[in-house]
Amino acid sequence: MVRFIGTLLIAIFALAGTAFAQNLPIPSVWENERGSIMKALDGHASNGDFHGTYINNVGSRCRGTPYDLTGQVDGTRVVFTVVWKNSAEDCRSKTVWRGDIAGRTLVTTWILTRENGDVLRGSDTFRLQ
């Protein structure tokens, strides 16, 4: 019985360590397949909120400069939002990414909403740098 309990405790700690390793590390830098960069810079472990910057490297607008992002992490689930307005440019839109972390990969789907009502959808796979 003691051996069983010892084995059970080892398994529980191993699983807990695996789940912790898959959480969003703060700070961390993630790059998607199109070269855009998501930086999780600071956060609050108690409620899962985090803040950072996003540098878009796709298209001709809102490209190459950092935009503020806010997010929420719950275990391996991650949601973050970028409002495409900074001191250099206002693209009159926002994007919300939702995804899951598995190891060093964050697989997301996104919805970009423009002020004029247009909606675009897609997906991104980010890799921890």
Q: Major sheet: size, sense and barrel closure? A: 8 strands, antiparallel, barrel
Number of helical elements: 1
Shape: globular
Q: What is the CA–CA distance across the termini?
A: 45 Å
Helix content: 10-25%
**Strand coverage percent:** over 45%
CATH second-level architecture: Beta Barrel
**Low-pLDDT segments, ≥5 res:** 6-22
CATH superfamily: Avidin-like
Text of the CATH class: Mainly Beta
| Rg on CA atoms, Å | 18 Å
Q: Strands of the largest sheet, in order across it?
A: 1-2-3-4-5-6-7-8
What does this molecule look like?
This protein has 129 residues and is of the alpha+beta class. It has a single domain (2-128), classed as Avidin-like (Lipocalin, Beta Barrel), CATH 2.40.128.30. It is 16% helix and 55% strand. It has 1 helix and 8 strands. Strands 1-2-3-4-5-6-7-8 form an 8-stranded antiparallel barrel. The relative contact order is 0.16. Residues 6-22 have low confidence and may be disordered.
